[in-house]
Amino acid sequence: MHTKEFWVKKLNLQAHPEGGFYKETYRSLIQGEFDGFSNKRNLSTGIYFLLDSDSFSAFHRIKSDEMWHHYEGSALTVHMIHEDGEYRKQKIGKNVDQGEVPQFVVPANVWFASEIEEEKGYALVGCTVAPGFDFADFELADKKLKTIFPQHRKLIVRLSH
């Protein structure tokens, strides 16, 4: 297995605003109205995303479904808070006998954060978003989210910037 530094260098990954490293690998543009999205819309986008145990991807939400694909390294835990306050988590990885899945979809408009729970671990994953990712559809949570979902206060504070 390679190191985090190997993948950051070989894939030319850059720091991501929510935590970790990324590089966009695919963007498909379509024209016209699409399910309430603007005239010019990306049908789909894809990125490499790398996260290690020294960081986390802070709670955020987007207006599209986001499919995660595990490529290399440790399992990545995705924490999700649905609009009704329901909490779920899913480990994305290759140990299916331990409840991990190699591919998982976070539904649109769900608050989610991710982390590597294995000490000194990292995960290289891919994220595919459809309709395509646009920063106009991205909302990074602040710690005020804990007032909306007080039952998840500790988790929100721990995984917010």
Q: How would you characterize this protein structure?
A:
There is one protein chain. The protein is mainly beta. Helix content is 11%, strand content 47%. The strands form two sheets. A six-stranded antiparallel β-sheet has the order 1-2-3-10-5-8. The mean pLDDT is 92.
Topology:
Elements: H1 4-10, E1 14-15, E2 21-31, E3 40-52, E4 56-62, E5 65-73, E6 76-81, E7 87-92, E8 103-106, E9 111-115, E10 122-130, E11 138-140, H2 145-148, H3 153-158
Antiparallel strand pairs: 1-2, 2-3, 3-10, 4-9, 4-11, 5-8, 5-10, 6-7, 6-9
Rg estimate, integer Å:
16 Å
**What is the percent of helical residues?**
10-25%
Strand content: over 45%
Coarse shape: globular
Stretches where pLDDT is under 50 for at least 5 consecutive residues are none
Order of helices and strands: HEEEEEEEEEEEHH
Structural class: mainly beta
Largest sheet: 6 strands, antiparallel
Number of H- or I-type helical stretches: 3
Strand order of the largest sheet: 1-2-3-10-5-8
Task: Name the average pLDDT.
Answer: 92
Please give the number of β-strands: 11
| Ends distance | 31 Å
